[in-house]
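Q: What residues go here?
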């Protein structure tokens, strides 16, 4: 089992078993020699109920999720073209697609013994809408590893706390499959229309993006090393604490033994003193 398989298994587990499952899978990765994967897995957060529900419907209804994201592509194209008529045609489809997924999610939750409140249902709806509007949010929803529900607020996507969303990035392989499935035709057409200046600008942007990714990867690797070092320190201190506790218990046993011997010695001394006084009295009476 590698990290990707472990992460999928973790977020597919019942929400109540998340922590125990994470610990077990991280232990298994470490035993298999994948220390980096083990550390990465330990950093994954437990999903909220709304995130768990979104992950569930994404795993169980992948085709409907793909249809929703394809509809998002159409929305963005119509918006870029200022095609008001097309947007009016797509809007009912948007509501219908989200309503159908929310209904499916409630049925799936019931099958899994999970009651869904109105608040959780609304957060699911907002997450699905964010997936339709924002490509990155769409990729995260399809990945089925959300730890928080998402919401599109105009300038971007935020999590349930209102903080900018920091979704786990897709692997290169999965991202490539998503691009090929949703964008292959459009990319070919755009490439044919692309001018030399546009191509140069695009290639420059791609190079800059690669540099940012490389920098982010270095930061991640440094963070992982720091985490591994901290974990090693914790293990060492834990071992020292165990040794100290054992030494303390030994010292306590020694104190108890010496105390008992002292009490016995005092008792013998008192008896000897008493016997000495009695002997002196007998002597004086002679």
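A:
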């Amino acid at each position: 089992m590698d990290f990707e398989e472990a992460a999928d298994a973790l977020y597919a587990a019942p929400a109540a078993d998340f922590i125990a499952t994470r610990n077990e899978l991280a232990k298994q990765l470490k035993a298999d020699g994948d220390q980096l994967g083990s550390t990465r897995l330990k950093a994954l957060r437990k999903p909220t109920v709304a995130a768990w529900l979104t992950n569930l419907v994404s795993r169980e209804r992948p085709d409907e999720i793909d249809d929703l994201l394809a509809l998002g592509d159409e929305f963005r194209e119509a918006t870029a073209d200022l095609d008001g008529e097309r947007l009016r045609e797509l809007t009912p489809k948007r509501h219908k697609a989200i309503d159908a997924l929310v209904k499916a999610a409630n049925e799936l939750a019931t099958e899994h013994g999970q009651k869904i409140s109105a608040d959780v249902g609304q957060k699911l709806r907002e997450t699905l809408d964010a997936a339709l509007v924002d490509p990155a949010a769409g990729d995260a929803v399809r990945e089925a590893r959300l730890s928080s529900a998402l919401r599109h607020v105009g300038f971007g996507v935020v999590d349930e706390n209102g903080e900018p969303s920091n979704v786990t990035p897709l692997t290169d392989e999965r991202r490539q499959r998503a691009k090929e499935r949703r964008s292959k035709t459009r990319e070919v057409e755009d490439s044919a229309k692309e001018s030399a200046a546009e191509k140069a600008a695009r290639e420059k942007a791609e190079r800059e993006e690669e540099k940012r990714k490389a920098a982010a990867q270095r930061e991640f690797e440094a963070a992982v090393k720091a985490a591994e070092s901290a974990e090693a320190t914790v293990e060492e201190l834990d071992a020292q604490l165990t040794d100290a506790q054992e030494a303390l218990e030994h010292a306590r046993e020694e104190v108890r033994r010496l105390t008992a011997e002292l009490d016995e010695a005092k008792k013998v001394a008192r008896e000897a003193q008493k016997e000495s006084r009695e002997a002196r009295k007998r002597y004086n009476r002679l």
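A: Context that may help when evaluating the design: The chain has a mean pLDDT of 82. The radius of gyration is 34 Å.
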